[in-house]
TrEMBL record:
The EC number(s) this enzyme carries: 2.7.1.148
Residues annotated as domain GHMP kinase C-terminal: 216-274
Origin species: Methylophilus flavus
Top-level division of the source organism's lineage: Bacteria
Name of the top EC class for this enzyme: transferase
GN (gene name): ispE
Name this protein carries in UniProt: 4-diphosphocytidyl-2-C-methyl-D-erythritol kinase
One Gene Ontology MF term: 4-(cytidine 5'-diphospho)-2-C-methyl-D-erythritol kinase activity
């Protein structure tokens, strides 16, 4: 039985959905080492719950630090600090994170937590920052933060920060996404730096993916360029992906370790989760048209 994404009325509860990269093409490398890429991001109705309450003494306190991550390095506190500095705000916050998105899983868990803190504190501290301003602050924390603030299915270019809304066809939006994560963490920087990574994918156009494109053509046109490198380095990812490919056009999200496949109904999704390989975690979810906190920033 899937845990329903929490949408009950609770003023201190803020949701941090995870993302899938439906595909990820690397089209070049910049002089500073960062990679030019093209991707479509889909936010899912599954993720972390953040409980955020106002403090008037200016302190930022993480109530349940993650194992192995110092509170000052946690993306939630870093996001709150960045917002405090940029706005000169004297208010603070207590933050409690219920983690559901596997860490280092290519699902943008930490980035989404950071985005949710920026959106929530923009509201709680009454800062009135625009979406664009919050996205700029988010980008200083990580390449994946802006897309969560953008808050809609997105076509991404540049190093991932140039975002446009893309209206995905029903064949993509109506699917049930089964996401399986081997119990390992893949370091993103290691994969981007690997000599075997291909960096010359031919640039595509957003028009190839907008409403009207049918889903079988969609999956045939695209891939994740990081997949061959990650599969060669991490047999756990290779084996999980091979297993999931029995059920459809399975792909890796981001730099892994998570892999996913789109299926037609909840029964099939439940079946795959129940039968998933050993030493993996899994969930299924549907795509979101809007981030639950979309209205916390004005355009
Ligand atoms: C793979 C993706 O998850 C796809 O959505 C993102 O591009 C990575 O986003 P992220 O985890 O927020 O990444 P960051 O923390 O900004 O960067 C981690 C490292 O990945 C490399 N990096 C990241 C993004 C990019 N376009 N080119 C890169 O080469 C850089 O070495 C960087 O030091
Ligand atoms: N709030 C947080 N949640 C998760 N990880 C965090 C957080 N704060 C800092 N981190 C650090 O960030 C690392 C990457 O975590 P995250 O879950 O964002 O990875 P990811 O899903 O692979 O991200 P991406 O898809 O953006 O590459 C973790 O291993 C952890 O050390």
């Amino acid at each position: 039985m899937r845990m329903l994404y929490n949408t009950r009325m609770d003023a201190s509860l803020f949701l941090a959905p995870c993302k899938l990269n439906l595909f990820l093409h690397i089209t070049g490398r910049r002089a500073d080492g960062y990679h030019a890429l093209q991707s479509i991001f889909l936010l899912l109705d599954h993720g972390d719950d953040l409980r955020i309450t106002l403090r008037t003494d200016g302190q930022l306190l993480l109530q349940n630090p993650l194992p192995g991550v110092l509170p000052e390095n946690d993306l939630t506190i870093r996001a709150a600090r960045a917002l405090q500095i940029s706005s000169n705000c004297r208010l603070g916050a207590d933050i409690h994170c219920t983690k559901r998105t596997p860490m280092g899983g290519g699902l943008g868990g930490g980035s989404s937590d950071a985005a949710t803190v920026l959106l929530a504190l923009n509201q709680l501290w009454q800062l009135g920052y625009t979406r664009q301003q919050l996205m700029q602050i988010g980008l200083t924390l990580g390449a994946d933060v802006p897309v969560f603030i953008f808050g809609q299915p997105a076509w991404a270019e540049g190093v991932g920060e140039q975002l446009s809304a893309v209206e995905l066809p029903p064949e993509i939006m109506n699917k049930y996404y089964v996401v399986i994560t081997p119990q390992i963490q893949v370091p993103t920087a290691e994969i981007f730096a690997h000599q075997a990574l291909t960096r010359d994918s031919k640039p595509l156009r957003i028009a190839d993916f907008s409403n009207g494109a049918n889903s079988s053509a969609f999956w045939q046109q695209v891939r994740n360029d990081m997949e061959p490198v990650v599969c060669a380095l991490y047999p756990e990812v290779n084996n999980t992906l091979a297993w999931l490919k029995q059920y459809g056009d399975a792909r890796m999200s981001g730099s892994g370790a998570s892999v996913f496949v789109a299926v037609d109904n909840a029964k099939k999704a439940d079946e795959l989760i129940a039968n998933r390989p050993e030493n993996t975690s899994g969930f299924w979810a549907k795509g979101l048209k809007y981030h639950p906190l979309f209205s916390s920033a004005k355009d």
